[in-house]
Specification:
The complex is a heterodimer of chains A (314) and B (501). Chain A is mainly alpha-helical. Chain A is 71% helix and 0% strand. In chain A, helix 7 runs antiparallel to helix 8 and helix 7 packs antiparallel against helix 11. Chain B has 14 helices and 24 strands. Classes of the chains: A mainly alpha (314), B alpha+beta (501).
Chain lengths: 314, 501
């Protein structure tokens, strides 16, 4: 079994998280952009658009109640600004930097895919503030992130490096899904009565932002209904972006790593917390709080992982 | 002289197919292929790192698509010369750390050894396997006007560049696939297998499946790309000092997700003064406390061995021909550049009288730093150099100004045709630019020389500074066998030809 240095493991783990973050953020901005096109014009007037501002809240991105930002401002913050933590440009750059310094571990094509994406983003991301060009940039990020998954799945040895990579991916994904569910679905269930007609459109947006629309429809074969959407995204056993599924995968990664008990303990806690939120899945405001709680337990999984595998003396 | 063309402008025999091909290609297509290689280098992430470059630490590797061509028959002579040279140098280092017979016999001056800043008393009496100390060396070769190939310097500490040899070839194959189909160009990427074999052979006796680690100063080091590349190619771990520790059993371990794991061989790319803060510089953050203990106990192999740098000194260089004669009883097969040693009164006086005809080099600098080229320096620079020589004569040597050979190189056209006579941007033009060559020599139980090496090119007209840290570029190097006159030994056999001890 090939060995994995703790320090290298840490870089790989962060590369996986940043790439997943870049992919998820890109998909979300794409999906909500399309959603807003289908909704009636924003209430907040000519300059600002409350809906775009609300999108920022998903990322916990330092918005105050009073801020009303234009679509362009939000795009700048979520995509273009390389100095803003969590922006697509920053996440892709950090994924590249972490892979640059771990490339001896991965199939060569993996490094090339990320390096290529990073070069593209450096050159083109400035144009993503422009709505007409945005789709091209964001779809490329989503596609390349998945291309990398494909390269690794088909050509990487199932060693510790592989498990650490998957662990980073699934933890970031679980976190992102709780954020979308918390903020968007809460808003969806607590919406203005005059937007009620758009319930289904909203639900579709949430599902699309998580690549979940088609699979939701196949699984439920029913109408798109807010609490069903929430349950699917949190508790589906077999949809690979649901929080429960992500936690199961994390547990499976841990099974193959050495002495995982402290981390598995944190996973068990996160999982039971998640399942206990089933009771509030129909209530918007409570759901938002419940998701914050789950997120804090996911953070504990992260800390346990760091202590056990990603630091010297772990 | 030019490497590809003779004095009448006709292509040399080994370069004939390349020349015909380039003629057929035409300037537009050639420019397109150069651009394609640059893009290739960018997307493959072939980079080197520049220290003083602010935030942009990672730069695309500068590359020129026109290869340098050397005939296989000539190269086989160079290989024999380099093998001989490194075998003798290793015997010399081993002698210095043991009986110092060469000093006792009056061949190598005692005071030079006494003043050497690269002699490590901590290494006295250590017996590395095969008596080999400088396992990996990158000797710089230059060719003078008369066609003689000289060794300009022996880099025995942490020579870099071999990853670019392999990458340059990969890029060139994509640029000129047609040529590789028809010609017998010796492959270069077996180097990493040879290196792996050498490193594995340095493991403590009785270890079946040794764990090899490449020790890098870290991700900001200028050669980090290479450290990563070599680790990747050899399946070795790429480690930093903090990843390693020496336990109470005097063995080296690395911290992994599976706990501490033993390391048997370290290919160190860290200068030896930084290797072990217990023994050398106490402030080093790059090394591993106790590493020297582990090495002396025979629990870990280190390449290059600590202390090997004693023979990598521009003063010692001047004695290499004597060193070869002394240990091997043979005449050197490859030439040394005549070298004036400023420590001797008569040689120093000659240097001070002929500053404008010589290159003055500080003994312990590398990367082209601190060099004064006599015929290009101002009066003030020469005066300053003379003062430095007088202040510390031991630290200075001088050599005649060699007129380095050239290879045609694509450069921007400074005098392009008017806009109305061309189609789009001006095309680059082919101009002669000076080159050197750094082959890599492996010395352990056997010795091996890379087929070709790193050709570096000074991109400015007339410039002799080829270092990539100072704006130099690089080229692929082709060792071409003539199908009618295949070289005598096959490459596989020639790697086994010399033994030390």
């Amino acid at each position: 079994m090939a060995l994995l240095l703790s320090r290298t493991a840490e870089r790989l783990y962060w590369a996986a998280r940043y790439l997943e973050r870049a992919e998820d953020t890109s998909r979300m901005v794409l999906a909500f952009g399309e959603l807003f096109d289908d909704l009636p014009p924003a209430r907040s007037g000519i300059l600002g658009d409350g809906r775009w501002t609300a999108l920022l809240a998903v990322f916990g991105n330092g918005v105050t109640e009073h801020d009303t930002l234009s679509e362009n401002d939000v795009a700048q913050r979520l995509i273009v600004d390389p100095d803003r933590p969590g922006s697509v440009a920053s996440s892709v750059g950090l994924a590249r930097e972490n892979l640059r310094t771990t490339r001896e571990l991965l199939p060569r094509a993996a490094w090339r895919a990320v390096n290529d994406l990073s070069l593209f983003v450096n050159d083109e991301v400035g144009r993503a503030a422009d709505r007409r060009f945005r789709g091209r940039v964001l779809r490329r990020v989503v596609d390349d992130s998945r291309r990398l998954d494909g390269i690794l799945t088909s050509s990487m040895t199932r060693d510790d490096a592989w498990e650490v990579w998957r662990l980073g991916r699934y933890l970031e994904r679980a976190d992102m899904t709780t954020r979308v569910v918390g903020v968007r679905a809460a808003a969806l269930m607590a919406q203005d009565p005059d937007e009620i007609a758009y319930d289904e459109v909203h639900g579709m947006g949430v599902l699309r932002s998580l690549s979940a629309l088609q699979m939701y429809q196949r699984a439920t074969r029913g109408p798109i209904e807010a609490s069903q959407v929430v349950k699917f995204l949190l508790f589906s056993d077999d949809f690979p972006r649901s929080v429960l599924f992500c936690l199961s995968e994390i547990d499976r990664c841990l099974e193959r790593l050495t002495d995982p008990e402290p981390v598995r303990h944190a996973v068990v806690e996160a999982r039971s917390a998640l399942l206990s939120t089933m009771a509030v899945a129909d209530d918007g405001a409570d759901l938002d709080d419940a998701m914050d709680w789950v997120q804090s337990l996911l953070a504990k999984v992260h800390h346990a992982t760091t202590d056990r595998y990603l630091s010297i003396g772990g | 002289m030019d490497e590809l063309f003779d004095d009448d402008g006709a292509p040399r025999p080994a370069a004939r197919p390349l020349h015909e091909f380039l003629e057929r290609l035409g300037p537009d297509e050639l420019a397109a292929r150069q651009r394609a290689t640059e893009l290739d280098i960018l997307t493959m992430g072939i980079t080197f790192t520049v220290y003083s470059d602010g935030e942009n630490i990672d730069r695309a590797w500068p590359f020129d698509v026109i290869p340098r061509v050397i005939s296989g028959r000539e190269w086989d002579g160079v290989v024999a010369g380099l093998q001989q040279r490194l075998v003798a140098i290793n015997r010399f280092i081993d002698d210095l750390y043991h009986d110092q017979k060469i000093v006792a016999d009056g061949v190598f001056p005692a005071d030079l050894l006494a003043e050497s800043v690269n002699f490590r008393p901590e290494c006295v009496g250590v017996d590395p396997k095969y008596g080999a100390w400088a396992h990996i060396s990158g000797s710089d070769l230059v060719r003078d006007d008369d066609g003689t190939m000289y060794v300009l310097e022996d880099n025995l500490r942490v020579p870099s560049g071999v990853s670019y040899v392999i990458e340059n070839r990969a890029v060139t194959k994509r640029a000129f696939p047609e040529l590789f189909e028809g010609e017998r160009i010796r492959p270069v990427d077996t180097y990493t297998d040879e290196l792996d074999r050498l490193l594995t052979s340095l493991a403590p006796d009785g270890v079946d499946d040794p764990q090899v680690a490449v020790l890098t100063p870290g991700i900001y080091n200028s050669a980090y790309f290479e450290h990563s590349f070599l680790a990747q190619r050899m399946g070795a771990e790429l480690v930093e000092g903090g990843d390693l520790m020496v336990a109470s059993d005097d063995c080296v371990y690395m911290h992994t997700t599976r706990g501490r794991q033993r390391v048997h061989v370290i290919y160190r790319r860290v200068d030896d003064l930084f290797l072990d803060p217990e023994v050398f510089r106490a402030d080093s953050m790059l090394g591993v406390p106790g590493l020297m203990r582990a090495w002396k106990a025979g629990n870990v192999g280190i390449a290059n061995a600590p202390g090997a740098g004693v023979a990598d000194d521009k003063c010692v260089y001047a004695w290499v021909p004597d060193i070869i004669r002394y240990y091997l009883g043979e005449e050197p097969l490859i030439a040394n550049v005549p070298t004036y040693r400023c420590m001797y009164d008569d040689e120093r006086e000659y240097v001070l009288d002929h500053l404008d005809e010589l290159v003055m080099k500080p003994a312990n600098e590398s990367g082209g730093y601190g060099i004064t080229i006599g015929n290009r320096a101002t009066e003030e620079e020469l005066a300053a150099c003379a003062k430095e020589i007088l202040d510390d004569p031991r630290n200075w040597v001088a050599q005649p100004i060699l007129s380095l050979s050239t290879v045609p190189t694509l450069v921007p056209d400074h005098d392009p045709p008017p806009v109305e006579e061309r189609d789009g941007d001006p095309l680059p033009v082919l101009r002669a630019r000076h080159v050197d060559l750094r082959p890599f020599i492996l010395t352990g139980a056997d010795s091996y020389v890379s087929d070709g090496g790193l050709t570096r090119v000074a991109l400015e007209e007339g410039s002799l500074i080829v270092n990539s840290s100072q704006g130099g570029g690089s080229k692929d190097t082709w060792i071409v066998d003539d199908p009618a006159h295949p070289s005598a030994p096959t490459p596989a056999e020639s790697t086994q030809s010399q033994r030390i001890d």
